[in-house]
Amino acid sequence: MPIYEQIFGAFSQDSNNPLSRISQANSCISLDPFVGCSLSCAYCYRYNSKRDANVSTPRKLFADETLVKSLINNPYFIPSKTIIGIHTASTEAFSPEVADSTFNIMNLLVDKGYKNPFWLVIKSGIPKNSYKMFRYIVKRCKGIIISISYSDLPSSVEPFKNDRFKNIKEAIKAGVRISLHLRPVVVGWNDKYENIEKSILVGVKNGCQSICVGGLRFLKGIKYAITKKHKLRFPKIEENELKKTLSPKTINFINKVLKNYKINIPVFLHSSEMISNFLGISDYNLYKFRGNKKLFLRIPLREQAVIEKQKNKRTKKLIKEAIQELRLKNCKVEINCGNVTLSRILTYIEERGLIHKLGLEKFF
Ligand code: SF4
């Protein structure tokens, strides 16, 4: 049963507010003007949102222009830096009903002079004759990255079996960067060596320039959809909403396939690392500095010195500025021997927003 009214990380819980279709995701801010997807993946995150869970035909809720305007006015949006996901939390970006909106949103932003990178996660290939549209946008922004989701899942889990790499060469020719989204890899579904081998060989043959592997995140709505809607046994994954379960065996299989076939492309565990690699920037999700619930970040003194020299400001000052610009209330920062603590626990949106602000703008 879905437990949230809106998409996870939505900036508003009010369905009449366009911010209800703009969400702070782990690796981007996602714009989702549509509700509904016909591809019926059993593990879809939409099942955790009451508004999205049971809609199978894509239907537009807000005009693209309305969402772009709301995005630009949101303090979490960093002009020309924030990674903009399009339809990543709600539907398939290149399904026939949605494809025009995908290009339109990118055009609206670049035509206003924003150079923000775009990130799409797709399963249906890209529309024919899209070279010119991609080329126009690629020349005006910091990059378009497309993750093609393919991990050889059974049809009971992913019924959609069309060619996921359809027309992808047009995008590559236009300068779009392509990564194989080897996700989700789930014990008992697709975690055998043969599944991993097939996925990587198909991805690489079709031009994927990196691999980003991941498991399945536990969410109550997804458990309900898998077991009750799709009548499948729920896989053995950790019941933690903030963690994806991935077996070390999967990483060994990936390394074995790359070695056996002499494939030399990078492998990432986090989408932000894959995106950062394509953009040639430091990982904006600051995984190397992450602390825990009580400790916000742990920044080695050597790294602090580098940041402070480059920015000509103390690290504490940079964090304070970010907190103010995001308008986080009652949030004070302290740094002691590289340990960064905050005076209160942040919400998911605040925490990811602050990390992205530091990683994309303040530190690097
Ligand atoms: S394609 Fe994406 S949005 Fe559509 S059902 Fe599958 S996971 Fe959900």
Map the helices and strands.
Blueprint: E1 22-24, E2 29-31, E3 34-35, E4 59-60, H1 64-72, E5 84-86, H2 99-111, E6 118-122, H3 131-138, E7 144-149, H4 168-173, E8 177-182, H5 193-205, E9 211-213, E10 216-217, H6 220-229, E11 244-245, H7 248-260, E12 267-268, H8 271-279, E13 297-298, H9 301-311, H10 315-325, E14 333-336, E15 339-342, H11 348-362
Parallel strand pairs: 2-5, 5-6, 6-7, 7-8, 8-9, 9-12
Antiparallel strand pairs: 1-2, 3-4, 10-11, 13-15, 14-15
Helix pairs in contact: 2-3, 5-7, 10-11
The structure holds iron/sulfur cluster (SF4).
Question: Any overview of this molecule?
Answer:
The chain is of the alpha/beta class and 364 residues long. The protein has two domains: 18-279, Alpha-Beta Barrel (TIM Barrel), CATH 3.20.20.70; 287-362. 32% of the residues lie in helices and 13% in strands. The protein contains eleven helices and 15 strands. The chain has an eight-stranded mixed sheet with strand order 1-2-5-6-7-8-9-12, with helices on both faces. Helix 3 (131-138) links the parallel strand 6 (118-122) and strand 7. Helix 2 packs parallel to helix 3 (131-138) and helix 5 (193-205) packs across helix 7 (248-260). It starts with 21 loop residues before the first strand and ends with a helix. The structure holds iron/sulfur cluster (SF4). Iron/sulfur cluster binds at residues 37, 39-41, 44, 46, 91-92, 123.
